[in-house]
Amino acid sequence: MGDSQQFEIWKKDIMPVLTSKVEEFHMLGYDRATQEDVWECVLAKLKKEKEYVRIHHLVRIILTLKITDYMTFLTVGAYKGPNWFDGETEFTFGDK
After folding, report:
1. What CA–CA distances, in Å, run from 54 to 8, 37, 38?
2. CA-to-CA distance for 73 and 33, rounded, in angstroms?
3. What does the alpha-carbon distance between residue 26 and residue 76 come to, in Å, rounded to a whole number?
4. pLDDT tens, 64-86?
5. Residues 62, 64: Cα–Cα separation, whole Å
6. In terms of residue numbers, what domain contains 71?
7. Is 58 part of any domain?
8. Which residue, 42, 48, 56, 60, is most buried by CB atoms nearer than 10 A?
9. Is 39 a member of any domain?
């Protein structure tokens, strides 16, 4: 997948597809699913693509996204998040 991809430009055009997928996840009980999280999950999947991705392929990826893939993406993202124990973050308790 090269830098010439049009994903951000296509995002506005495929917003109804993202909305549909988020509504599907909400119906399955995953109320915290957001369009932005689904979008980031799909982009992460597309980074593995070797060839130019057409818009219909992007839509297919969104429509066939499984909740297990989405939850795995969120879990991995949480593990890659900020390291709270790196010693650079200062924690204060109370009025100190």
Report:
1. 13, 21, 18
2. 12
3. 21
4. 999 999 999 999 988 887 666 66
5. 6
6. 7-79
7. yes
8. 42
9. yes
Longest dimension (CA), the chain: 56
Whole-model pTM: value is: 0.77
The rounded distance, in Å, linking the Cα atoms of 49 and 35 is 22
Please state the domain count of the chain.
Answer: 1
Query: Which residues, 6 or more positions from 84, have their beta carbon under 8 angstroms from its beta carbon?
Result: none
66 located within any domain: yes
1: pLDDT confidence band, cut at 50, 70 and 90? very low
Structure tokens at 54: 């057409």
Q: Is 64 inside a domain boundary?
A: yes
Mean pLDDT over all residues of the chain?
86
Token pair belonging to 11:
């995002």
Side chain identity at residue 86, one-letter code: D
Are the beta carbons of 69 and 41 closer than 8 angstroms? yes
